[in-house]
Write a structure and sequence with these properties.
Layout lengths: L12 E3 L4 H16 L6 E4 L4 H7 L3 E4 L16 H7 L4 E3 L6 H11 L3 E3 L10 H9 L17 H7 L10 E5 L11 H13 L3 E5 L8 H5 L4 E3 L4 H10 L2 E5 L2 H8 L4 E5 L4 H4 L6 E5 L12 H15 L3
Parallel strand pairs: 1-2, 1-4, 2-3, 4-5, 6-7, 6-9, 7-8, 9-10, 10-11
Amino acid sequence: MRLRQATSPLGPLVVFPGALGDFVCLLPALEEIRARHSRAPTLLCKVDLAPLVRATGIADAEPIEDRRASWLFSPAPPAEADACFGGFASIESFTGKDVPEVECNLARWQGPRGRVHPFRPLEPMHLARHFLRCVAPQEDWLEVPEPRLSLPAEVAAAHTPSLASESRPLLVIHPGSGGRAKRWSRAGFGEIARRFARRGQGVAILLGPAEEAEAGEWRRLGIRVIVGLDLVAVAALLATCDVYLGNDSGVSHLAGAVGSRGVALFGPTDPQSWRPLSRRIAALSITPWHRYEEGAPAAAVDTVDHALAHAADLP
C-alpha cells in the first residue's frame, strides 16, 4: 500500500480477504461504491488478485499480505498508519467484524465513514447480495446486477494463450475447485472432452496451481492442457473460448463475469447461494454427485453434454 498524507483525500478503500470467486461476487458492490465517489476505490486484496483488478480497471489494488494491513488489527498502530488509512474517503472492511482493535482503529481513522462488515452472510442468500446489502443497506437487492469484468483489448491480446491450432468451437474445461468435495468426476470430464473431440470440436483443460500435478493424466488422453496462467491470462482465455465447463469454483465465477457461455456443476453446495450470477452460465445440480475420484454414469454425462449444447446457443 502506498503511504499518503491524511491531508490528501483519496477514493474509498475496500479491505477484502476473499479468493477469486468471492471477488467476483464483490463486483456489484464495488460498482455501487464507485458510483458514490468521484475517485476510484482501492482494493486491499490477495496478491494474486491484484493484477486482475488493475488490468480490468475496476479499482486500484494493493496486496492484503502487506505488513501495513496488519495495522488494522493492531492495538497500538504506528503513527504512520494515520497517514496510510486516514486519507481515504471511506473504508469498507470485510475482515475484522467484532474485533475491537479493528473497529477502534477504523473509528479513529475514519469516524462513521469506517465500517466493518461480516465476510459471510448471517442468513441464507447469495454472497453477491450480501456484499451489496453491506455497502448499501437501504436497499434489499432482490435483483443483483450481473458481475462484469472486461480486459482492454491490448491486455487481452498480450495475455491470451495461442489457440491457433485448436479447432472451433473451443470448449475450455476447468476440473478444479477450492474444495475437493466440489470437484465432479474426472472420468465424467474426460468423457465430455472425448465427445467434443469426436465431433471435431476443440478442447482444452485449464489447470490452476492446485491441479498442475494432474497435467500428465489429461495429456495421456490426448487433450491440450493449459497450466501456469496468472488470473489475467485466465480471464483472457475464458473471454475468447466458445463454451466453458467447470465446478463450483472461482474460475466459473470469472467465466461468467467475462462473458463466457457454459455450465457450472454443483453437488454438495447450494447454487442459490454460490452460482455464477451470469445468464450465460447455467448452474447444473448433479444428483447423485460423483466425486473427482469416482466414475460418472452415462446418464450424468449426457445431462452435462446437453446442458453445454444449450449454453453454447445462449445470446
